[in-house]
Write a structure and sequence with these properties.
Order of helices and strands: HHHHHHHHHHHHHH
Helix content: over 70%
Number of helices: 14
Length: 343
């Protein structure tokens, strides 16, 4: 393929998401894997925020801020590195096992810190951050490869995490924490059983070397900038709402539905048409966010519709590197989030 054809092929993928090379669901197993990964994503994020909230209630504000910083840096900023590991690892189920082990140790460490009143909060934050990072790139890689980058499945997988955060924050308790952990362990066993009955090994290498290095670098950078801006705008919408328990759950539900809907809308009408439809709506909602609660809710729903689009596109330009692709966009969330406190 000639170098000048690379942008043309990329642009074509923006219009047609369900072509022969992309977006095809193969078997019932792909439904099962996507569903399990999405449910496990909810549990993982719920476990992490529940551990942090349990410790925060018994320690000072400065200590709480410290562990939150450590956790977020490891959970998000490390994902490009863990993503590269996911791309290179032959037996990817080990990444899931290590992630579950780290999260289990984090829950046990939280119990020790809380009941013995010892200062091991940073240890808990490191375990949570590392376990969270490994799980996300493992799940993002698995869903992208097993579904051939189906944008609907990508949206479903990424959507549930935010609702898990909401559940963990509102219903934070030891009972819920251990229920989530046990459920995660059981679902991991189910996932390993399903993974043995199918083979996704090497399937991410079917399509590669379609784009030039310069085009890939510029496109990946542009998508990361878009993700940073989206993180900032999204926080601007949710930051204007009163954070009651009901509102936290509602925000989590709206964000989850938006991410899921975005994948299905883009698959149905194409990415370009979806962006053309969403962008004017976002601008209006952003301008009137301080005057109308409806604008906040609609804007929150619309901004989340774009998440599976950016993930799909970065997978298109980095075929065979879906772990790295997922990690790059995850890392880009943090600067956008921090901008909301600076501006």
């Amino acid at each position: 393929m000639e170098a000048q054809e690379f942008p043309v092929l990329f642009f074509r993928n923006c219009y047609l998401v369900d072509g022969n090379d992309m977006g095809k669901r193969n078997t019932i197993i792909t439904y099962q894997m996507t569903g399990l990964c999405a449910l496990m994503h909810l549990l993982v994020d719920g476990i992490c925020v529940c551990c942090l909230y349990l410790m925060a209630s018994h320690f000072s504000t400065s200590q709480t801020v410290e562990i939150c910083i450590v956790y977020n840096v490891l959970a998000f900023m490390s994902q490009p590195l863990t993503g590269m590991w996911a791309d290179r690892l032959e037996q990817k189920h080990w990444m899931l096992l290590v992630s579950v082990l780290l999260l289990t140790l984090a829950v046990l460490a939280t119990s020790v810190v809380m009941f013995m009143r010892i200062f091991g909060m940073s240890v808990v934050a490191v375990l949570l951050g590392a376990g969270n990072s490994l799980f996300h790139v493992w799940g993002g890689k698995l869903v992208a490869v097993s579904t051939r980058n189906d944008i609907r499945d990508l949206g479903t997988f990424v959507a549930t995490g935010v609702f898990g955060l909401s559940l963990g924050a509102v219903f934070c308790s030891w009972h819920m924490l251990y229920i989530f952990l046990i459920s995660l362990c059981l679902l991991s066993i189910m996932m390993l059983h399903i993974d043995k009955s199918t083979s996704t090994k090497g399937s991410s290498e079917v399509i590669k070397n379609r784009f030039g290095a310069t085009f890939v670098l510029l496109s990946a950078t542009a998508l990361m900038v878009v993700v940073m801006m989206r993180s900032f705008v999204s926080e601007s919408f949710s930051g204007g709402l009163r954070k009651s328990s009901e509102m936290v759950l509602f925000i989590g539900m709206m964000s989850m539905l938006g991410k899921m809907a975005g994948g299905w809308i883009a698959h149905s009408i194409g990415i370009i048409r979806t962006i053309v439809m969403i962008l004017p709506l976002l601008v209006l909602c952003f301008l009137f966010r301080n005057q109308s609660m409806v604008a906040l809710f609609v804007g929150m729903l619309a901004i989340n519709c774009t998440m599976p689009i950016t993930l799909y596109l970065v997978n298109v330009i980095l075929p065979g590197r879906e772990g790295l692709a997922f990690g790059l966009l995850a890392a880009a969330l943090i600067p956008g989030y921090l901008f909301t406190f600076v501006l």
